[in-house]
């Protein structure tokens, strides 16, 4: 980012003459040209699909720059950091200086770009999540993030799921943060599972239907919900806002 990272004032260095402009009395020099261009050998050294260790050098909103060796960096796009987490910023997963495992996804010598993947080090767990999170399965989830349309919960096996606001309680919840907090554990039932879009939609309302009244009362009290909804939650035969009629997509976040 700055010449001082390579040289200092008064230092005697070797350089290669790149061009000579007699009219403007300008001489262009190069330092990197003293050594062989490492990019010419990268395809052989870093074939697509190979695995390597690298050091995190920089974080951006769109990904992580990882140094594979001195002078050779690659980019792990934010979407290639985790199979299971909905990551808003790479800093949620890694920090500068971390050594991480990566897989080579592509090498573009002309553009000096190496595409890396971190999640690809492991098999895609969504191939087996279909059995674990079948529609109707009951599971406990911990709230990890509150958004306008509901809450993101962490489920067993480290995967994130989405609970729409209408599925948190029979009563209308106007301000989710007033009733639910990050870290709260919720009883849930799977409403939707979509492998391709990596989406699991869940409902606390449905999970409460076949629970004992004291369990429901405890849930209502914990989240300061109106007690009049207890009977509804236990005895209702239909959810007031059905999943089919509801937008369960999670809004994109920066």
Layout of helices and strands, plus pairs?
Blueprint (H helix, E strand, L loop, with lengths): L15 E6 L4 E5 L11 H4 L5 E10 L2 E7 L2 E6 L21 E10 L4 E5 L8 H7 L5 E10 L2 E5 L5 E5 L11 H4 L5 E10 L4 E5 H5 L4 H10 L6 H7 L19
Parallel strand pairs: 5-7
Antiparallel strand pairs: 1-2, 3-4, 3-6, 4-5, 6-7, 8-9, 8-11, 9-10, 11-12
Observed structural traits:
254 residues; 12 strands; 5-stranded mixed β-barrel; alpha+beta
Description:
This protein is of the alpha+beta class and 254 residues long. The protein is built from 6 helices and 12 strands. The chain has helices spanning 42-45, 126-132, 176-179, 204-208, 213-222, 229-235; strands spanning 16-21, 26-30, 51-60, 63-69, 72-77, 99-108, 113-117, 138-147, 150-154, 160-164, 185-194, 199-203. The chain has a 5-stranded mixed barrel with strand order 3-4-5-7-6. Strands 10-9-8-11-12 form a 5-stranded antiparallel beta sheet. It has a two-stranded antiparallel sheet with strand order 1-2. The chain starts with 15 loop residues before the first strand and ends in a 19-residue tail after the last helix. Residues 228-245 have low confidence and may be disordered.
Approximately what portion of the residues adopt beta-strand conformation? 25-35%
Helix content: 10-25%
Q: Quick one: how many beta strands?
A: 12
Shape: elongated
- In whole angstroms, the N-to-C terminal distance is 26 Å
Low-confidence stretches: 228-245
Summarize the helix and strand pattern as letters: EEHEEEEEHEEEHEEHHH
Number of helices: 6
Please give a quick description of this structure.
With 254 residues, this protein is an alpha+beta fold. Helix content is 15%, strand content 33%.
């Amino acid at each position: 980012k700055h010449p001082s990272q390579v040289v200092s004032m008064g230092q005697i260095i070797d350089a290669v003459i790149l061009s000579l402009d007699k009219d403007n009395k300008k001489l262009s020099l190069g330092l990197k040209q003293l050594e062989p261009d490492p990019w010419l050998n990268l395809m052989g050294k870093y074939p697509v699909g190979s695995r390597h260790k690298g050091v995190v050098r920089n974080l951006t909103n769109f990904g992580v720059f990882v140094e594979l060796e001195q002078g050779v960096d690659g980019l792990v796009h934010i979407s290639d950091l985790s199979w299971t987490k909905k990551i808003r910023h790479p800093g949620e997963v890694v920090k500068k200086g971390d050594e991480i495992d990566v897989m080579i996804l592509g090498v573009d010598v002309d553009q000096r770009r190496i595409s890396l993947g971190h999640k690809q080090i492991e098999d895609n767990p969504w191939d087996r999540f279909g059995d674990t999170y079948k529609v109707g399965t009951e599971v406990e989830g911990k709230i990890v993030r509150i958004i306008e349309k509901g809450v993101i919960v962490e489920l067993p096996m480290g995967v994130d799921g989405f609970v729409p606001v209408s599925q948190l309680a029979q009563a209308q919840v106007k301000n989710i943060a007033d009733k639910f907090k990050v870290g709260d554990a919720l009883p849930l039932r799977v409403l939707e599972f979509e492998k391709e879009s990596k989406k699991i939609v869940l409902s606390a309302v449905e999970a409460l239907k076949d629970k004992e009244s004291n369990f429901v009362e405890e849930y209502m009290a914990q989240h300061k919900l109106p007690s009049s909804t207890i009977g509804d939650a236990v005895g209702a035969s239909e959810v007031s806002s059905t999943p089919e009629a509801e937008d369960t997509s999670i809004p994109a976040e920066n």
